[in-house]
Specification:
Elements lengths: L1 H8 L7 H22 L7 E2 L5 E2 L16 H13 L3 E5 L4 E5 L4 E2 L3 H9 L4 E2 L1 H9 L1
Parallel strand pairs: 5-6
Antiparallel strand pairs: 1-2, 3-4
Helix pairs in contact: 1-2
Length: about 140
């Protein structure tokens, strides 16, 4: 929610259509999340940067911690904390390692997906996740 709050504010007063689109999408995402939390969606939880689960995102600011990094690093650390125990299985036939855990990071941010991959956290972009849901 903190990342979306920052994105919705923009800061370049109509600099270009791309920035305007990001601001619009961030506002829409926050509206969706606020509504889902208000409706007490039982599948939705907020998470603090320390991994504490919350049933609301009304409290979006946290006390600064010793954590050094950007918002992507904070998001990744939260996802890793949530993933808990991971089990890696080597598929010898395809020569790939499959990581099994209860958490998948959904993001269209390619750099964040690469960082998650280095931490063995499964990721999906939003469109492929939506396709998976429909199948």
């Amino acid at each position: 929610a903190n990342e979306l709050d920052g994105l919705k504010k923009g800061g370049r007063d109509g600099a270009d259509d791309h920035i305007d689109g990001i601001e619009t999408n961030a506002r829409a995402a926050l509206t969706f999340l606020d509504g889902a939390f208000a409706a007490k969606n039982r599948f939705l939880r907020g998470v603090t940067s320390k991994g504490s689960l919350m049933t609301t995102i009304a409290f979006r600011n946290e006390e600064p911690t010793a954590h050094v990094g950007n918002n992507d690093d904070t998001i990744l650390n939260c996802a890793v904390l949530l993933s808990g125990q991971q089990q890696a299985v080597l598929d010898k036939e395809r020569n790939v390692e499959q990581v099994m855990c209860k958490t998948v990071l959904l993001t269209d941010d390619r750099n964040l997906r690469v960082k998650a991959h280095t931490r063995q956290l499964p990721t999906r972009d939003i469109s492929s996740f939506v396709q998976w849901l429909k199948s």
